UniProtKB/TrEMBL annotation:
Keyword Magnesium carried by entry: no
Organism taxonomic ancestry: Bacteria, Bacillati, Bacillota, Clostridia, Eubacteriales
Family, per entry: Belongs to the UPF0102 family.
Species assigned in the record: Clostridium gasigenes
UniProt entry keywords in alphabetical sequence: Endonuclease, Hydrolase, Nuclease
InterPro entries cross-referenced by the UniProt entry: Restrct_endonuc-II-like (IPR011335), tRNA_endonuc-like_dom_sf (IPR011856), UPF0102_YraN-like (IPR003509)
Gene Ontology MF term list: endonuclease activity; nucleic acid binding
Official protein name in the record: UPF0102 protein SAMN04488529_10380
HAMAP family for the chain: UPF0102
């Protein structure tokens, strides 16, 4: 089951990647990671850097995708983003944290994408 979930997550990330490109986002990095964790997609649109967390689901048995991004997960993402900003010297940009939910239909190959802009903020 763990391998299946990883495959679903990877497929969802690929769909989100294409969705962002089609909507005018320039992809800076995919799966940026260090010891703190991983950021799924980092992109730029206009003068804004967007850190996107991608969550894919077949059903709501474990809640909606955005519910999986708990307060502690948000803090982990923010910490990792600060590191990315530092090493890439991006101090003159504004930032945003988005969540992209990918919903699959278990009966066929249809899917839907819900892009939640500015899903959370650093407190």
């Amino acid at each position: 089951m763990k391998g299946f979930n990883k495959d679903i997550g990877n497929y969802g990330e690929d769909l989100a990647f294409e969705f962002l490109k089609r909507n005018g986002y320039f992809i800076l990095s995919r799966n940026f990671r260090n010891r703190c964790g991983e950021i799924d997609i980092i992109c730029k649109k206009d003068d804004l850097i967007i850190f996107a967390e991608i969550k894919s689901r077949y059903n709501y048995n474990y809640g909606s995708p955005i519910e999986a991004i708990t307060y502690s997960k948000q803090k982990q993402i923010i910490k990792l983003c600060k590191f990315y900003i530092y090493i890439n010297k991006l101090i003159n940009y504004n930032f945003r944290f988005d969540v992209i939910e990918v919903f699959f239909n278990k009966d066929n190959n249809l899917y839907s994408i819900n892009h939640i802009i500015d899903a959370f903020r650093e407190s």
